[in-house]
Amino acid sequence: MKLRLLAPLAAAPLLLTACATDSADPGANPEALTVVTSFYPLQYTAEQVGGDQVSVETLTQPGAEPHDLELTPQQVASITDADLVIYLAGLQPAVDEAIAEAQPAHVLEVGALVERIDGTEESAEHDHAEGEHAEGEHTESEHAEDEHDHGSLDPHIWLDPENMVAISDGVAAALTELQPDGGFDQRADTLDTTMQDLDQRFSEGLAECETRTFITSHAAFAYLAQRYDLEQISIRGISPDEEPSAARIAEVQELAKADNITTIFYETLVSPAVSEAVANDLGLVTDVLDPLEGLTDASRGTDYVSVMDSNLEALRTANRCQ
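Structure (tokenized):
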């Protein structure tokens, strides 16, 4: 499936209701807004846009796999009491349920800020896969919608820097509603420039490559692939917990041979065993392509931008880019 550039981002409404709840103890700044975010990329955005005007709490702790998050009673209480809750619907069912039950006063659902795309792979659309499946035989991707709560929409919207610009602006608008003199628009402009610079590095760095196909542990990179005219082949579907069938592994191996792939990518928060097995069978190397669902001590960077830069270098090496 050849992925192409995104259409312009659609504007989306911000869900804001009633008056703000009382702020929790914000520490140094008694006027700081309390902001609860569901996982790392939203935490990063809230911290960059909010500055010292916000006190940010994230529900997904470092090193935890966000898809499988279970909330403590204290975390549910923090959602109720927060001045603003920022989350991505469909990524973490426990968060969706807690927000529906707690009904916090101000909520920003960032998925409404960007154009969503289908993250499934139809192997029959790939030139090398056409006609390879017998009647009644199915690939892993064909079952993705039924097997995972995300459906067919790829939730990894933050892997396109242009989407991060939209999220940054949405966060600034939400915070400004609560504190008009907080300077959020100016900090969002700074973050937007950082994202635009990152986007330019990716565009230039991936402009001329021997192959535009890359193989990943799970289908987390549809937005990145579409933005930079790449093609993602995933061993697993959208869920990192899926166990790929022997047929899917064999299919990926055939595609790797056909496209002259040298590298099988794995992730910091998911076991590399499957990626390593596929690579070993073909005599290929493995490397990290981080979907940035969270940071760990093993992350190749200390924040969103530095990890994305590491992803760029990994792709440039694997795809033999000039």
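The chain has two domains: 33-116+157-199, 123-153+208-318. Confidence is low (pLDDT under 50) at residues 1-26, 122-150.
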